[in-house]
Amino acid sequence: MEANILNILREYRDIYELIGDVYRAAAYSTALRAYAAGEPVTAGIAKKIVAIERGEPLADLIELQRSPFVRAARSLGSILGVGKETFAVWFKRGITNRTQLRVAVRDGIVKLNHMQTLGLRHYTHLHMRVPRDVITEFARKFREMVRKIYPNASVIPAGSYRRGAIDSSDIDLLVYDVTRPDISTLVIGADAIVMSGQEKTTALYRIGGIVRSVDIIVVSATHAAAALLYLTGSAEFNERMRGVAKRAGMRLNQHGLWHNNVLIPTKTEREIFEKLSIKYTAPRYR
Q1: Contact assessment for residue 218 and residue 231, using Cβ atoms and an 8 Å cutoff
Q2: Could you tell me which of 199, 230, 194, 234 has the C-alpha nearest to residue 214?
Q3: Each residue of 141-170: pLDDT tens digit?
Q4: What percent of the chain has pLDDT over 90?
Q5: Which residues contact 243 (CB under 8 A, 6 or more apart)?
Q6: Which residues pair with 257 in a beta bridge?
Q7: Which of 127, 67, 116 is nearest to 96 (CA)?
Q8: Quick one: which H or E segment has residue 195?
Q9: Mean pLDDT, residues 212-239 taken together
Q10: Tell me: the pLDDT tens digits for 67-102?
């Protein structure tokens, strides 16, 4: 039931973000954090939670989901690299689905950037679930490749894979203990680079004939424990952990556990739990 409530609150938040209602989106973001941390929510949202627990339909949510704008946003907004502002421009031009977008691109009415071009071109593949065994084998090969260049490197598949899921939406790989990493050496064999940053690089790999999205997150050993905890998820578990840290007078994020803006040294996830004085939770229960 708790997971269902969180999913529905997240649905409200996502829709309000799509339609640009920043105040309601912020209210549901706050409610998500509060509910996940076991804290009270506003009276209006509390009523919705009671309705969900009773199995009652939420008329306003149903109406939002049926909105032509929302339906179009979910078709076009799910393309890699397409944000709310871009979608809004397309919607005003009468483009409400991917078929219309492809025609507009072909006719020169719409110009896509690099990321959007890749997202539209590989849309079907990128929305196929990645089986667990595919992630296991890819991570093994990726680890072997990285260690030829950085012998001390650790490569750990994170995300829902680490929580024991049978499949995932993409592949998340945490890489650490790599001295001065050259990102170009970590994406050998990639079909395309979607984006490359100081810590995170997203690349497309053709695995078994299917194009898969792979997020490669590179951190130092100092931040590895917190990064692994964050990247493993789930989102609601991370919310709970941040809530626990806050109540303990600390701050937890993907870069570490902090007290008065000073990093508390932690080498493993277990040490983070210990510093927060709570029992360790194995990934499959998160």
Answers
A1: no
A2: 194
A3: 999 999 999 999 999 999 999 999 999 999
A4: 82
A5: 33, 36, 37, 38, 39
A6: 252, 264
A7: 67
A8: strand 192-196
A9: 94
A10: 999 999 888 989 999 988 898 899 999 999 999 999
CB-CB contact of 160 with 168 (8 Å): yes
CA-CA-CA-CA dihedral for 142, 154, 242, 246, to nearest 10: -160
Q: How far apart are CA 216 and CA 184, in angstroms?
A: 12
- CA-based end-to-end distance of the chain: 15
> Could you tell me the pLDDT band of residue 180, with boundaries at 50, 70 and 90?
confident
* Mean pLDDT confidence for 172-193: 88
229-254 pLDDT tens trace = 999 999 889 988 999 999 999 999 99
Torsion sign (Cα): 235, 237, 239, 242: negative
Cα–Cα distance measured from residue 286 to residue 268, given in angstroms and rounded to the nearest whole number:
16
Q: Judge contact between 9 and 46, C-beta under 8 A.
A: no
Backbone dihedral angles phi then psi of residue 36, each to the nearest 5 degrees: -65, -30
